[in-house]
Amino acid sequence: MSNLSPMTTAQAVWLGILQGLGEFLPISSSGHLIVVPWLLSWPMQSLAFDVALHVGTLVAVLAAFAGDWWRLLTGTVRALRERRVTPEARMLGLLALASIPGAIAGLLLEEWAETVFRSPALVA
Question: What percent of the chain has pLDDT over 70?
């Protein structure tokens, strides 16, 4: 990561667009955030910048599906009040359960994510 230096606003915008589009295609948006700057000889962005782009995508997805999230949350609250399982509570529980392996992998591979997994050769 010796090429870590400030990027231009235009480069940051292009990487944001790449992240946003790539997240919904069957490609690795994270991989493209590594390979594209390398191919274009742009400075390597920090892992924090990559995470900020992913958080931006998360916020956009949460906003786009706000109605669905509201339905899941209110259905879960209703289930807790009535002490029964609703389809919404079940779905929210399954989503939470499905997130656990990714969270564990992220914690265990944190150092690799900052070093090895940011290698353009490995990503390509």
Answer: 94
Closest CA to 45 of 112, 57, 53: 53
The amino acid that residue 97 corresponds to is: L
Q: Which 8-state DSSP code applies to residue 27?
A: S
For residues 35 and 4, what is the distance between their CA atoms, to the nearest angstrom?
A: 14
Comparing CA positions, the residue from 45, 13, 19, 16 lying closest to residue 32 is 19
99: which 2 tokens?
A: 């997130």
Question: What digits encode the pLDDT tens for the residues 82-118?
Answer: 999 999 999 999 999 999 998 998 888 877 776 777 7
- Give the total residue count for the chain: 124
